[in-house]
Amino acid sequence: MWEVAAIIGLGLGCLVGLLLTAIRLPGTWLIIAAAVVHGWWTDWQPVDAVIIGILVAAAIVAEVLEVITSVLTAKKAGASCRAGWGGLIGGIVGMIFLSVPVPVLGSVVGALLGCFAGAAIAELSVRKEFGQGAKVGVFAALGFALGAALKVGIALAMTGLLMASVILAALRDGSPPV
User: Fold this and answer.
1) Which of 92, 4, 93, 99 is nearest to 42 (CA)?
2) Which of 48, 57, 28 is nearest to 148 (CA)?
3) Which of 39, 61, 114, 169 is deepest in the core (most CB within 10 A)?
4) For position 11, what pLDDT does the model report?
5) Nearest to 112, CA basis, from 94, 85, 136
6) pLDDT for position 78
7) Cα separation, 43 vs 30, whole angstroms
8) In degrees, to the nearest 5, what angle opens at C-alpha 158 toward C-alphas 32 and 89?
9) Global pTM value
């Protein structure tokens, strides 16, 4: 019975982690925390140091990809270095201050608006050309969205790996996972 409760708790932790990742909060790290708690609860069977290490590596890759994707996409539009920083800072500020009152999606919309505005304003401060500033802003926002999608995909893979290892171990031990 406790094994079933542990698997359900792990699944809920992963689900919340996925939702947090989708709204640009540190959900990948919640997935890792859920894995650590589950590992501790089950005496590190089947969640062990190898699984935790893979999850941590995946979370780090997700964080790096999220940032690099936005910057590289803006660079494709000819963005200055200042515009890359403007988009990054604008995305964070926008998530906090420009969120629209729509549950879950509101902070994503605010982050996209902030990323666009931050990159466009920073580019305008360097090049003084409105068309280029707007183009860079659009590309930065697209990169921001692509980075978020990549991070959600990695969080989904983390969840799949974690849940599969736990459920398969439970089946191998002869006790049904649910």
Assistant:
1) 4
2) 28
3) 114
4) 95
5) 94
6) 87
7) 20
8) 75
9) 0.82
Q: Are 65 and 150 in contact (CB under 8 A)?
A: yes
Instruction: At 40, list the tokens.
Output: 């501790």
How far apart, in whole angstroms, are the C-alpha atoms of residue 2 and residue 8? 10
Q: Where are the domains of the chain?
A: 2-172
How far from chain centre, in Å, is Cα 174?
35
- Chain position carrying tokens 């969840």: 159
Place of tokens 């692509």: 146
pLDDT at residue 130 is higher than 70 = yes
pLDDT of res. 104: 66
Tell me the two tokens of residue 110. 């605010």
Neighbour count for residue 123 (Cβ, 10 Å):
29
Cα–Cα distance, 150 to 161 (Å, whole number)? 16
Own/partner contacts of 167-172, CB < 8 Å, gap of 24 or more, are: 167/7, 168/46, 169/45, 169/46, 170/3, 170/7
